[in-house]
Amino acid sequence: MSETDPQPAPSGPAPANPRALPPGFRPGWVRLALLAAGLVLAYVLYSRFGTDSDSIHEGRSVIGWVVHQWRIPGGDFESMWVMPVVCLVSVWLARRRLAEADVRPDWRGVLVVAASLAVHVVGYRSQLPRLSLGSMVGVLWGLPFALWGPGVARALAFPACYLLLCFMSSLLVEITMPLRLMASGLACALLQGVGIGAVQQGTVVLSSAGGGFSFNVADPCSGLRSLVTMTALAAPYAYFTLKSNGKRLFLFALSVPLAMLANALRIFTLGVVAEWIGMKLAMQLYHDLSGYIVFVLSILLLVAAGSLVDRNWRALLCKLASKKRSRA
Questions:
Q1: Alpha-carbon distance 169 to 300, whole Å?
Q2: Which three-class secondary structure state does DSSP give residue 70?
Q3: In this structure, what DSSP letter does residue 171 have?
Q4: H helices then E strands: how many in the chain?
């Protein structure tokens, strides 16, 4: 065969490009235009008619209202701006799943958008900005649901829920006092467990011996920041590391007691340092240092809990049972 003869075509299907979109996928310019128009209208609505709670200092934008909450110096929510960034990253990581979803417009998405707008009306009339923020998440999720269908809606479920968690975290302020009482009570129990006499008087932890330590579990030490941080970390960690939705929800639910435990351990160690070394050192140097220790401890507890949740306990129990039968 000469060099000019045509070469036979390779048999079999061509190798698939893992980065290429499915051959039948078309984003649809009409749908994209409708989505862009809906997003612009939503931005105008929530900017011009978001909230009147403090329009002089914060404007009327509900987005400006929540950003103001994040920018309060030393506040419990000053790091919440990271969560919308995580939402955008999760949408980018889900791009393949979005491309492979069946395009099937769904009227249920229209109902979601309509219901969300109704909630915003209630939130605006009653001056409850958190209701309006929740409705904004519903609009952002409902528009792709209506235009592309349930497959796209499922792929965007985690970013939408995580954004809702970001906006609703400020509701945890309402449980600050119960958190303070639980943290001080658990810290007292731990101190008594290691032989250090401690009693609880409301949110105050004090030594049962005269002249010992005494400190009040104030709002900054209530554990609210630990709780907000732990839930913000647990949600993406569970979503990206676990495959089962049940395990994801279980690990996320565990983040609440883990945050409370970490904060109680911080108060406990403050009592130990005050008892063994002195109250002055405990409330000055160690008090500031313990915040970083609690953060690292929270991360370790979360990773350990995730490892335990992800373990195949059924297979492990079956293996142990088979070993026990073989020995018998």
A1: 22
A2: helix
A3: G
A4: 15, 3
Angle in degrees, CA 103, 104, 110, rounded to 5: 120
Dihedral sign, Cα of residue 235, residue 236, residue 241, residue 245: positive
Asked if 20 and 96 count as a contact pair (C-beta separation under 8 A), the reply is no
CA–CA dist 64, 263 (Å, integer): 31
The full DSSP string for 153-212 is HHHTHHHHHHHHHHHHGGGGGGGHHHHHHHHHHHHHHHHHHTT--EEEETTEEEESSTT-
SS3 216: strand
| DSSP per position, 248-299 | HHHHHHHHHHHHHHHHHHHHHHHHHHHHHT-HHHIIIIIHHHHHHHHHHHHH
Give me the sheet containing 204-207, strands edge to edge. 198-201, 204-207, 214-216
Q: Rounded distance, CA 233 to CA 235, Å?
A: 6
C-alpha pair distances (Å), 119 with each of 50, 314, 318:
12, 44, 50
- The reported pLDDT for the residue numbered 57 is 57
* pLDDT above 50 for 2: no
Other beta carbons within 10 Å of 284: 11
Q: What is the pLDDT of residues 32-91, one digit of tens each?
A: 899 999 999 999 999 888 777 655 555 678 888 888 878 777 666 777 888 899 999 999
The sign of the dihedral angle between the CA atoms of 256, 134, 57, 78 is positive
At residue 213, the pLDDT reads 67
238 backbone dihedrals φ, ψ, rounded to 5°: -65, -40
Q: What is the pTM of this model?
A: 0.75
Strand pairing report for 198-201 and 214-216 = unpaired
Residues whose CB falls within 8 Å of the CB of residue 287, separated by 6 or more in sequence, listed in order: 270
Dist CA 222 CA 228 (whole Å): 12
